[in-house]
Amino acid sequence: MADSTNIGSLQIRNVSKLFGAFRAVNDISLDIRNGEFLTLLGPSGSGKTTLLMMIAGFLDISEGDIALDGASISDVPAEKRNFGMVFQGYALFPHMSVRDNIGYALSVRKRPQEEIRSRVDEMLELVQLQDFADRKPGQLSGGQQQRVALARALCFSPPVLLLDEPLGALDKKLRVEVQEQLKDIHRRVGTTFIYVTHDQEEALSMSDRIVIMRDGAIEQVGTPNELYERPNNEFTASFLGKSNFIRQDGKLFALRPEKIDLRAGTGHADARMSGTIRSITYFGSMKRIIVETAESVEIEVDIDVWRNSETLAEGDAVDLLWTDAAAVELQVG
Amino acid sequence: MQSFTRHFHPGWLIIAPLLVLVVALYLGPILNILWLSVTDPEPGFGNYAKLGESDALLRIVWTTVRICIITTLFSVTLGYSIAYAMVHCHQRQKSYMLTLLLVSFWISILVRTFSWLMLLGRRGLVNVTLEDIGLIAEPIAFMRNELGVLIGMVHYMIPYAVLPLLVSMQSLDTRVMDASRNLGASGAQTFWRIYLPLTMPGLVASTLLVFILSLGFYVTPAVLGGGKVLMVAEYISVQLLVTLKWGTAAMLAALMLFGVLAMLWVMSRFMKLSTVFGGTTR
Amino acid sequence: MHDKQFMKEMLQDSAHAYKEGRMDRRTFLALCGASGVALTAVMAGDAEAAADHVVMWNWGGQSEECHGSAIGDAFTAKTGKGLKFDTSGPLEGKIKEMVDSGNVTADVADADLFNAVSLGPTGHLEPIDYSVVSKDKTLPGYALEHGVSVILYGYAFVYDTEAYGDNPPENWADFFDTEKFPGMRSLYKWANGSLEAALMADGVAGDALYPLDMDRALAKIKSIKDNSLYWGSGSAAHSMVVNGEVSMGMIWQNRGRNIENDTEGRYKLVNNQALAMPGAYIVPKGNPAGAAVMDFIATAQDVPAQLALLDCLGMTPSNPAAFGQIPEDQQDYAITSAKNIDKIVYNDPEWWGNNGGDAVNAFLEAIS
Q: A257-330, which class in CATH?
């Protein structure tokens, strides 16, 4: 199935999109490697969908250039780009059966019936909808529709698959399940996936690399691990997981709540700070404890329940401890 | 009493008098017409038999059907283009277009009919201009013939064709068309395979509306046809008001009623009519 | 500018045609299934009749004003009763419907004399009371049991002097001769007058027209079918001529003067062989004002009313006593003027009353 391993790299060079005077995407440059699962992550209005639509060809590029495997595609119309796309809300063809939906791309390319049939069968198997081939989209559940959309977009073996918040309409439990399937399908087809979401958990669990976007520009690019462990700015640190921000000696540090240790009483030798417990929230596997320091700064601490045999209560005085590596210095600016 | 309320929601009792009234007011006249068609001037199916005996009646019916089909074809095709343009242009232009459409919708049919005469008549603006610039030697016979009737009727019917299509097109999810393009379909392929099928309910509604309304046309054929294009509605009116052959009139009215019902029945074989009249596809 | 004049005419006629328009819509509804209610609503009209006035059922427009000034005022002065109008147009079918429904709201209908022949025997009309109305104040044969002719109008024709100025057409034979007089023609759509004109064109003498030889008449009509248009209302006849759509047009003679004026004399009226039509007053059975309506009809027969109708509507007097008093400037246009009376032929209401329905249908079938 991995029939597109050598193609599917995208080069985005100084791309901007202007709506009037407003820069929805502002001077973005990015290299997307073939076969990777790249997520554009950001809050709404960050320009991630606009960027995706420019890649797809639905929006013109105002400035800059986009190239596929080195060849510019900026002037290639959407229908000639051969990129698969899974739309928000799926945009399935309601009047066609699942089979016809999936085979549409081959059918408009006037491929032989036999070829379409066998390819659609392959795709139905890939997304495990063999028994639903003759149904209409309206007769399927949300998760099934999502899989039809995926199969439809992959059926013509596009070098790049674009996914615009494809799980947005699913409930939380189903989302986790579909994430697994999506990841699995990505592994099997080897196509470059460009995935747009505003859900940081989704991004962390699925992506090879994540692009954090804000106000039309890239904040940081990296693997999930890199971004989580070594965010280089306040936005990344707070958007991707939770962080406490500490200023020391004119420098700004990000400190993950789970990397702080907490001891009852004060005066511990390597204590970094001390304070008073304001609240304790129980989450099953861990407790979230808010500590107010002497400087009236609130520090959030996540403690594994199994490690914490001590009985802590609101109002207790505590010391906070962490290693040097736990505090990540951020660029100030 | 309990079993009664189990089967009938008490709300029915409240609307029952009105319901009975509406049914009576609708069915009464229809039954009256059907009754008249088999009793006037004498009991039996003599009026219907005339259809077989009289070439003239058949010719009038055929003229009517032919004109209505052509009118529907043009009105709906033009209406489709107009609705498409309205849905896909900017909001401001769309408001202008809608205003223009509704203005022509509101202008009396008589005024519109006479305007066509002034524009396309033998000494109308168009013919005079063409003659003045030397393009034609003799005036073109746009009016006072079947062509004139068609021009007038198509013009009158276009707003009726546009409105159901507009509703249908506006409710479409445009991402579906993006999806089609994304999958490699050309504009034409997207239109024929996606856009047209998805607007089909609107198209059918528009076709039915225009065709059925056209069947009742009277003023336009009478004026623009120069008296030589005789349609059923005018003929019925003459039988009612001038020649007092009410049986013939009732027979033709019943014929058109059954014709329309038969058409709806045939349509219902191919698609759910509820989707045409505003229901959902699911 | 004659366009302006035409617009005025057209708008006046629109009022009554609009009523027809409304009617059509409802007739259409009948086809779709909501018919009869609306139909009776229209046919009932909107006038209320009571004993202190009579209701005249006419076609509205100018006639409302003219009937009021020419007859209504004198009638009120004589009897103290008022005159009201229902302007929805007393077509035969509407009169029948009104009487059949038992809701008679009109006292006198401005109709054709042949309506009296077809509706009288079926019990839809009151007989005319000839102790009040005079048989002598109309032409012989035009005072019938159920209706009396009060005015005459005529089917005449106008021709384009620019096309035929040197050798003008003089009679119906010329009118139907499209070789000698090339160009388009217009005729009345509801057969009346058209059939008689066709027969005269084919050589039948004016006093030997009835009973009409339908086959012969229709054959003549069909012979100019490709060169002819048909009008259904006075305004349509007017506009076909004024807009230059035809070189010769059959018209109601009372419109002749307007057409000559509107075309600045380019089209000229020919009254030779004009067919005199007896316009008649008929009384729907069970009319609300009862016998009082006979006074009204008698008033309309008086010479002053006859001359006032000629002046106001162009309708020609049918009372022989008025013929001699037709003013000089109306001599050319009034068909019973000294100038025209010997050239005209007379319609037979008996034949039309008994055969009109079939004749209209046969005619429609021939021209469509």
A: mainly beta
